[in-house]
Amino acid sequence: MTDRVEVESKHAPPLAECAHCEHMLPPGLGERECEVCGAICKVSHEPTIDALIEEKVPCPHCHTILVAGTDERPIELTCGACSGGFVLTEKVVKVEIDCPGCERTLRIRPKPGKRQLNCPACEAAFQVTF
Ligand SMILES: [Zn+2]
Ligand SMILES: [Zn+2]
Ligand SMILES: [Zn+2]
Fold it and tell me: Which of 1, 38, 100, 128 is the most buried (most CB within 10 A)?
């Protein structure tokens, strides 16, 4: 067997906020535990769920278009045309932040709570809170 092939999903729900402390919740759908205050919040987003179920992905082996058929990610899919398997993974959510020092846009994976960033262009350090 070769290594398992992964394809990143194109859809992800919008980032949700904790109903209690308004910090960002960990990305994803369903019950999410706020990493800042510990509250459990239910995240649901119909348009994203529909998009995930109907998501069309080309088989990485033979390029036949497959339909995911589920909103679960990661999910293992098997291609009906070539019997090749692959894993459709969760989309990695990134946000864009402008450096306050030089206007360069940084793309980062958001993490709940406070964190320090260092701009790679001007080396300014600044804090962001999600
Ligand atoms: Zn919270
Ligand atoms: Zn295939
Ligand atoms: Zn900068």
Answer: 128
All structural domains of the chain with their residue ranges: 6-93
Provide the β-strand partners of residue 41.
32
pLDDT of residue 2: 55
Tens digits of residue pLDDT in 93-122 = 899 999 999 989 999 999 888 999 999 999
Cis geometry, peptide bond prior to residue 120 (ω within 30 degrees of 0): no
Is residue 4 exposed (0-12), middle (13-18) or buried (19+ Cβ within 10 Å)? exposed
109 C-alpha to ligand 2 centroid (Å):
31
Number of the ligand closest to the Cα of 21: 1
The pTM score is 0.80
